[in-house]
Write a structure and sequence with these properties.
The structure is a homodimer. Chain A is mainly alpha-helical. In chain A, 48% of the residues lie in helices and 6% in strands. Chain A contains six helices and three strands. Chain A has helices at 8-15, 19-27, 46-59, 64-71, 82-112, 130-133; strands spanning 5-7, 34-35, 41-44. A three-stranded antiparallel sheet of chain A has the order 1-3-2. In chain A, a hairpin with a 5-residue loop joins strand 2 and strand 3. The termini of chain A are far apart. At the A-B interface, helix 1, helix 3 and helix 5 of A face helix 1, helix 3 and helix 5 of B. Chain A binds a DNA duplex through residues 7-9, 18-21, 23-24, 28, 36-41, 58, 63-65, 153-154.
Chain lengths: 154, 154
DNA sequence: GCTTGACCTCAAGTTAACTTGAGATTTTAG
DNA sequence: CTAAAATCTCAAGTTAACTTGAGGTCAAGC
């Protein structure tokens, strides 16, 4: 019944991720492992899925912190079931939809702003700096449709 | 005829960007300035637009290096005209379209992958690690529709 | 049962994009 | 003309996400 556990080398190879990154993820609480008597890591098979999830999410621009938040919803004590992952997937879909929407808004506004010919920065909806929208704080205000900037920090 | 030039403080306030960032951008070749007899920076008005452009582009996830590349297309010797900016804007639109498309592909594949119920990582089109597509190199292969990952480094 | 490849830990280095701080000079308002 | 506000330079610090290296241990095959 230990045959279901894999070494860090195997996980690294199958996931296409370097060992160092796996250890780093574990240190950040994104992965878990049990140890052999000698202290080496052994991963349950579902960690492979976790790694895939992590890399995929990073690819759409989410931070490890965000990802850790999502993974925290998975059960700790048992191996995640199909429906655990499905639930997670649904939330992801929402995140992706928001990001797509934000980019579409940006694209459309870019057309109307710099691209339109008005060239008036003071009237630009895309970039609304401090002296235009000081009451709402400084910096770009409309970039993400003025919604919560999902997944992007700073 | 010097009234058309603004100080770093004014640019910072109007653009909603700290002085330090403006100096940094200049050091990176993203902005330009002339100096007073005493050595202080004075910016032409069109630098305000440049700053807006920089921040906007950063917001969609482009690196300063990418942005520098785009800005390098603007004329050095004269103030950019409306059509200079329009041309730049059109290229941006293409970049945004590509990013949007990549996210849509990702969203749709997520549905079919983790979300579908097959739960088979070996069959997952989203995340295709080394042992599935070793011949094409390791790491995720289909994440951006297997196209050139526009604007993202590493 | 031993050698060799796989692992381990911990500290330090790396890149991007800035920020912070120190110490000195320039501008500007009164 | 002078004091306060704005700038200047340069070096060092910061965060994220890892990588690299040193020095040493574990495990698997012949």
């Amino acid at each position: 019944m230990n045959e279901t556990l894999i070494s860090i080398g195997e996980l690294a190879e199958r996931a296409g991720v370097p060992h160092s990154a796996l250890r780093f993820y574990e240190a950040q609480g994104l992965l878990k492992s049990v140890r052999t008597a000698g202290g080496q890591r052994r991963y349950a098979r579902d960690m492979l899925r976790r790694v895939a999830f992590i890399r995929t999410a990073q690819n759409v621009g989410l931070s490890l912190e965000d990802i850790a938040g999502a993974l925290a919803q998975l059960p700790e004590l048992r191996t995640p079931t199909r429906s655990d992952w499905t639930r997670l997937s649904k939330r992801w879909r929402a995140v992706l939809e928001e990001r797509i929407h934000a980019l579409e808004v940006l694209r459309d506004q870019l057309d109307q702003c710099i691209g339109c010919g008005c060239l008036s920065l003071t009237a630009c909806k895309l970039y609304n700096p401090a002296d235009q929208a000081a009451a709402r704080g400084s910096g770009p205000r409309y970039l993400l449709g003025d919604t919560r900037p999902v997944g992007r920090k700073r």
